[in-house]
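Predict structure. Input: 2-isopropylmalate synthase, 447 residues.
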Amino acid sequence: MPSHRYRDVFAKVPVAPVDREWPDRRITTAPLWVPVDLRDGNQALADPMDPERKRRFFELMLAMGYKEIEVGYPSASQTDFDFVRLLATSDLVPPDVTIVVFTPARPELIERTVESIAGMHGQVVIHMYAATAPVWRDVVLRRTRDELASLIYAGAEDILRLAGEQENVRFQFSPEVYNLTEPDYILELSDQLTKRWDATPQRPVILNLPATVEVATPNVYADQIEYMDKNLPRRDSVILSVHPHNDRGTGVACAELAVLAGAQRVEGCIFGNGERTGNVDIATLALNLHAQGVDPMVDFSAIDRIRETVEHCTRMPIHPRHPYVGELVYTAFSGTHQDAIRKGFAEHHRRADATGVPTSELAWDVPYLPIDPADVGRGYEAVVRVNSQSGKGGIAHVLESSYGVRMSSAEEVEFARHVQRHTDETGREASAVELKGLYEEVFGCSN
Ligand SMILES: CC(=O)SCCNC(=O)CCNC(=O)[C@H](O)C(C)(C)COP(=O)(O)OP(=O)(O)OC[C@H]1O[C@@H](n2cnc3c(N)ncnc32)[C@H](O)[C@@H]1OP(=O)(O)O
Ligand SMILES: CC(C)C(=O)C(=O)O
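Output follows.
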């Protein structure tokens, strides 16, 4: 393959040196989450969400506890505009939830965006973007650095003129493709924007730094974020936000390292829909925190209902191996894993009995299961499934948990031989019902 055609990130953009502290830090609190499913996720769909889907997704996000939600690109389509109008003119938005609307730095589209939010009671963020990386400047926008800066400042002035007086409105800027943009240019833009928008700790400006197309290992993005954290002017009046995509399959790692590096806010999509390989998956990010004992501040305790809604709205299925939500992620087919899980469950129950702490509250240390499936509303039936790769421990677990059948050690060994022969012959999984039938054939009774 012609790998010589490609260059690494260091050949494309100066990565400013930073006296990095992120490798020694730990994440101890959840960042501010901003689901962008209704905007970035939506713009990646072949069939964008209709009003029913948008509303259903929005209500899901409220029910899960999200407090800031990007609801659309109101100047892009009548559907998006009307949805924002619905939010502005109904009581669908709780008082503690902030609505974000997205716009390019084009005067007529800014005007339409501001028109869409008229009458909105709660907090609103007007989010303006422009691509700042050299290839986009040269090829797409065909502007020099200074010309592009002027276009961005003109957009900022338009927003200020049209909405600056509204006390419930705050401002956000995204230098699209931040990860390929010269850091001194971002500092200059940020300095000017926070000055023009009069950023204060009480009315902070959100500076959102997207890895629009992921191009480097996550440590590079972390350095790029820490550099901004340490060098931004008016830092206490800026909410530093990140918006990773997943082109290299490392969007989650980028977001986590970015939080270590000083990011306070993370934009992404629930289960990772979005342009190309998707936006960063904020479900995985939240549950990664949960799995380390940190409250994610959003509720995934009914993950299958969340999944059904997301699949309905995006019209896309979620992969069976998708972290935390996939159909198979709490299931072991292989013998030694099953054996370990069975012993882990037994130990978990033994400790619950010994301490009097309910199993659902007890510290979780079951091998091969990073979290208790019950935390996200899953049962235990699918944890062990039997095929020709399974062993006596897994087979015994299925019979015991499904039918209360307990075998002696010698019976387990003998029965496993029969199951092995059966599954080798069929080449398929053996269900609990099949195992029970086989058990009765072998031992002539149902124990
Ligand atoms: C990384 C991201 O997710 S960015 C968001 C991308 N999302 C979307 O594009 C979804 C919604 N977009 C749309 O519906 C349409 O693109 C619209 C309505 C916004 C604009 O449509 P059109 O006016 O037909 O323009 P078109 O889509 O071709 O956009 C290209 C023009 O916008 C300019 N442009 C692109 N981004 C920006 C920006 N952030 N600020 C100002 N101008 C911009 C381009 O330079 C180009 O201008 P030119 O025609 O003078 O060369
Ligand atoms: C403009 C920003 C927020 C974006 O969607 C991206 O860069 O992917």
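The domain at 7-314 is CATH 3.20.20.70 (TIM Barrel).
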